[in-house]
Amino acid sequence: MRTEDVLAAIATGLWRWDNASGTVTLDGEAARLLGLPAEPVVLPEAAARARFHPVDWNEINGIVNLAVAEGTLAEARLRIMDEDGRVLRTVRSRSKPLENRTADGRVDYELVGTIQEIAEPQPGTTAAHTPITGDWRRSREAFLLDAGRALAEARSTAEVLRVAASLSMPGFSPDGLAVFGMEGDQLSVIGHHGHAPGDEGPFSDMALDTDYPAAEVVRTGRAIYLPTPEDYKRRFPVTWPLAQPFDRASWAFLPLIVAGRTMGAWMAAFKHPVTFSPDERSVLTTVARMLAQALQRAGVAESERELTTGLQRSMMPQLGPEIPGMTIAARYVPTGGGLQVGGDWYDVIPLPSGRFALVIGDVQGHDVRAAGLMGQLRIAVRAYASEGHRPDAVLSRASRFLAGLCSAPAPDEASGAAPGPGADADADFGSPRFATCLYVECDPRTGTLEIARAGHPDPVVRMADGTVLMRPTAGGLPLGIVPDTDYPTTRFALEPGETLMLCTDGLIETGGHDLDTGWARLRAILESDAHDRAAPGEGGRAGGDTDNHLERLADLLVQAVHGPSSHHTTGPLADRREDDIAVVLLCRESPSCGCGTPAEHLVRPARRTMLTVAQAEPSRIAGARRQVRELLHDWADAEQVDSAVLMVSEMVTNVLVHTDGDALLVAEAAGEPGARRLRVEVADASDELPHKRHPGEMASSGRGVLLMEMLADAWGVDPRGEGKSIWFELYEQAKPDGDEDREDPGSAD
After folding, report:
1. 34 closest CA partner among 11, 18, 65, 55
2. Non-local CB neighbours of 224 within 8 Å, separated by 6+ positions
3. CA 592 to chain centre
4. Residue 450 has pLDDT above 70, yes or no
5. What is the per-residue burial (b if ≥16 Cβ within 10 Å, else e) of 699-722?
6. Which of 65, 56, 34 is nearest to 133 (CA)?
7. CB–CB of 319/332 below 8 Å?
8. Is 10 exposed, middle or buried (0-12, 13-18, 19+ CB in 10 A)?
9. What secondary structure does DSSP assign to 686-706, as a single string?
10. Which residue has the higher pLDDT, 413 or 173?
11. Which ranges in 79-182 belong to alpha helices (H)?
12. Global pTM?
C-alpha cells in the first residue's frame, strides 16, 4: 500500500507551500479537506488563502516565523471556509519550514507538511477546547500589551526583573523565573524569582560550554523547551541533578536577543505540565524579546547614570579644608534631560595671600558642549586665581579665554573641505557661547568681600537677625562676548552671623518665575527660621552648629524650587524646569548671632547696608531705594519707610546733579523692634554744603532741606577731610492702638 493511500485512509493530506513561486501544491486528500475536488491540484497562494478563516491565517504567520526562528515544526489549527463564508471543518496542520536561497542571495521559505481533520467537541462534553479562539487571543493580546507597557516603563535592571516576576501569562503562569547574563565566557544569574536566597549559587559563574540548557541557549541562540522531567534528564543528564531538587514539571529556556546579539537567557519553570504548544511558545518568545529590550534599555540608562555621576563628581569640586571663622555649603542639581550635566558650576579656590575665592557661573546651554566648556572655564578661572590676580583681572582673562575657545573654526572650515553629513553638529560645536560668572574674594579674618560680576545675578546677604538684602554690585558683560572687557569690583564686609548666598538663575527662575517673583520666593525661605531649628537628634544650636544650619538651608532652598512643594508655588510664567541649579552659602560664624536661641534672649545686631552710586550709573538710584525698603521690611510705621525712601532718593540725586563725584550710601538700623533707630548717611567729595531754599510753587527742585526738616527726626551735615556727609535719623514708632491694617513689627522675628 502506498503512503498516499495510508494517509488518505486516516483523512490526512499532503501539501507544499512554495513562498518563492507563490504556489500551493495539494494532493487529493488535502484538496478535499480544503473544500475542493478530491484530486491533486496546484493553486495560486491567494486561492489557497481564501479557504482559511482570516483570523486563523493571521495566526499561522506568527507560528511559521516562530518555527523558523527556533528550527522546530510549525503546528496550527485552522478553520476551512466555503465560498459563502461558512466553516466546513477544522484541520490541524504540521509542517517544516525549509530555507531556500535564490541565485541573487534572497532567502525564501518552503513549507512541507500534512493537514488532518479534527473532530469538533460536542456541546456538553468534556473535550478540550481549541486554544485558537477569539477569547484566548484577546487575553493573550491584552497580556502582551500590559507586559510591554510595564517593561517599557522600567528604568533599572531591578525594576525589569520585578516586572518579569509579576507577569501572569494567560493560561500558564510560571512559578519560577531566572535571567542569565554573560560575563566573558561565564554564565551568571542576573536575577531570579520563585527561589530561595542562595539557590542561584550552583548556576552562577557557570562556563558557557557546560551541558546546561541556559548555556546552550546562549551558545546557539535557539530556544529549548522541556515539557517533562524525562525530557530534561534525557537531554541534559549532567546538570539534571541541579534542577531536580526544585520539583518542577516543565521548563522553557529562551534567548534574550537584541539587534541580532544574544545577551543572555531567560528561564520560565512550571510546577504543572506544559506542552508548549505553538501559541504558548509564541507568548514566551514575545515576552523574551520584550524582556531583552527592556534589559538593554535599563543597562544603557544605568551606564548613563553612572557616567553622569562620575562626570558630575569630577567637575564639581570638593569644598576643601575648613576655613577658620567661615562655613561653606553648596549644592548642584542638574534638572535637564540627557546626561543630566549642564553648564552650571561653583568652586572654592585657596589664594596665595591666605584668602580664598568663591566662584559660581553658568555656561550658556544644557548640552554636552556646555558641560565641556564649563569644565575648561572652571580650570582656567582656578588657574588665574591661583596666580594671585585680582577679581577684575581674573574675569577679564577668563572672558578672553572663553572667547578664544568659541572662536575656533569648525573641522570642515579648518580643513577647507566641503561640509559633510555632520556639518550641522560641527557648526553648533563651534558656535559662540557665553557664560555668566560671579567671583568673590574673601578675607576670613575681617570678612571683607571683593566681588566682580559678569552678567550674573547679584549676591544676597542674610543678616544675623534674619533680614535678607540683595547686594547690588557693579558688573560687566558675560564672559566670552567681548574678549577685552573691564569688570569693576565692589567691596563690602560680611559681618559676624551673616550669610552670603550665591546662585545661578536656575534657582531663581525655575517654576515659571522671573527675577522679581523668584527672589520673593527665595526670600521667604531665607527669612524663615526652619533651617535654624535643629533636626531630630541634632540638639539645639545654642553652641553655634553652623554646619548643620547651612546644610539645612541649602536643602530647603533646592526643595523650595525643585521639590514636590515647588509645584504649588509656581510663578506667572510657563513652568519650565530645564535649567540647572547651583547655590553656594558662606556664613561668617559668630557665637552671638542668635541663630536658634529663644527670642527673649536674642541679641539683635545692627542691620547695615552700603551702596555706591556712580555718576555714570543714575539708574542705581532705584537700587538704593530698594535697599532701604528691604532694610526696613519689618518697620512698624509704613509711612516712615516711605519717608526714608523719599529722603534717600533726594539725597543721592542731589549728589549726582550738583557734584562731579559719586555718592556713597550707608544705612544702619539698630535696636529692638518697636524702638529702633535708622541712620542714613550719603557722602560725596564736594565741599559745598546744602542750604535751605525757598522754591516757588512751580519749581522742580530746591526742596531737599525742607523734606529733611519735615520728615526726619534728626538730620545734619558733617564736613570731612575731602567732601561731606549728609545724614538723617528716624526713630521707629510703635504701632498705634487699634491699627489693624499693619502687621505686628515683631512678627517677622
Report:
1. 11
2. 213, 216, 217, 235, 251, 252, 253
3. 41
4. yes
5. eeeeebbebbeebbeebeeeeeee
6. 56
7. no
8. exposed
9. --PPP------TT-SS--HHH
10. 173
11. 134-153, 157-166
12. 0.60
